[in-house]
């Protein structure tokens, strides 16, 4: 364990048990970073009332019981414990981290984690609203895999249902070849809107579209062939977007609505036979306890409509049953918009009533907030349409190229760097805010080389690489030892020690912004170190080797962290 906060927490908890009895050893020590020391433990204030003792008296009792090896401790204010780590301890832990190719990231007992993310509609283009579900889900998948979990990606495409009747008929009207080319090029929205207008205005087309739906659902060979072509060419477009974004989804991860279609009848029958689902006004419903409507009446989750059709709730319940029984999931993460919160609460509650979800498997809705424009409203084009994701990403690259235009690179190198900086800027801006929060999309802020931005972190790594390039040194060959003399060295080393536990916390809480914040703090600490501590021109060889080691460790932490965020890093900027 190299994380100072964890080490100090364990020490204070041990002292709590020694000073006040083992029943208190599980208390949260309430350790926080402090401006007066490295850390501050506030547990004495929270315990004082329960112990019926003055907070400073409680704090002093803790000091008396505390193992102070490598720690300086004093009581301040009403009962704060100020904790300062010895430089030698920090340096020793940093050396351990340098020798560990995982930089302190643990490998706990592996779990099977199913992550449902991205999930665009096969009949539509991807827009800015799909950005967050895609990159947050991908970061969580990368992080869990890095921790050793078996990750099963599930791209729950909207690839089934009544709209495909009109879409297939429209495809036949304008010709297969032209239609499929348009779909592969990402013209899905216009294609869908054309079909919709014809459906609303042409009774003959409407009738043909309605007849096509039962043919699709009944397995008519020619209809299924057309549907498969429609899906295949749409997937080509999705894959182009995924490559542009640098996410890890592939065709093997597709688990669309159509996959669950054969399971829906059986799932409903099982729920009805178990008494979990009941008939209500002609529909088969589950009434999970605790959910009521505006009239204070129990709120139904409709799993089979009165006309015999199925909806999203049925598909989602069948998916849970499949993911638990067939995929053997320990955790199921649904990276889906926050507006679906009630839906997932009811689906999860219904699955627990059915016994499909037990204490052995957790299902969690990772709520995704909206992307807003500068006016504080949903991010749209001037005409009020959703912003196409491909156009947004291309604009980010063009703007990034303008930012580095004066740096003397040839056109090909400049474009390559701009691709990494532009896409990285968009992804980092999204990931650096809490996933359930809204944020304003602002290219100028995203592409800034200062502040908590992707380009700032990329620039920090490029700066470190330049040190090793100028010294003709391979950072992988540097081995220290690390010796701390300057405050900036100590601050950087202390910051680096927390990397492993932050990665573990990201997976535990599904909060990628915590990793972004940590990497930003590391980059800031390195900037201060770089400005005040010469590396290649250090005063003696011992200091030079120590600073090279700190630089190499910082580079590795930044590169590993940015890789988990799915952000590529240029060699130069």
From TrEMBL:
Subunit record text: Monomer.
Keyword Transmembrane helix tagged:
no
Signal sequence range: none
Protein's name in the database? Arginine--tRNA ligase
The record's subcellular locations are: Cytoplasm
Q: Supply the enzyme class, top level.
A: ligase
Domain DALR anticodon binding per the UniProt entry, residue ranges: 457-573
Which Gene3D superfamilies does the UniProt entry name for this protein?
Arginyl tRNA synthetase N-terminal domain, HUPs, Isoleucyl-tRNA Synthetase, Domain 1
Coiled-coil regions, chain positions: none
What are its E.C. numbers? 6.1.1.19
List UniProt keywords, sorted A-Z: Aminoacyl-tRNA synthetase, ATP-binding, Cytoplasm, Ligase, Nucleotide-binding, Protein biosynthesis
The question of whether Metal-binding is a record keyword is answered with: no
Q: Which InterPro entries match?
A: aa-tRNA-synth_I_CS (IPR001412), Arg-tRNA-ligase (IPR001278), Arg-tRNA-synth_N (IPR005148), Arg-tRNA-synth_N_sf (IPR036695), ArgRS_core (IPR035684), DALR_anticod-bd (IPR008909), Rossmann-like_a/b/a_fold (IPR014729), tRNAsynth_Ia_anticodon-bd (IPR009080)
SMART domains named among the record's database cross-references: Arg_tRNA_synt_N, DALR_1
Q: Per the database record, which ranges form the Arginyl tRNA synthetase N-terminal domain? A: 6-85
Q: Which GO terms describe its molecular function?
A: arginine-tRNA ligase activity
Q: Name one Pfam family in it.
A: DALR_1
Q: Which reaction does it catalyse?
A: tRNA(Arg) + L-arginine + ATP = L-arginyl-tRNA(Arg) + AMP + diphosphate
To which protein family does this belong? Belongs to the class-I aminoacyl-tRNA synthetase family.
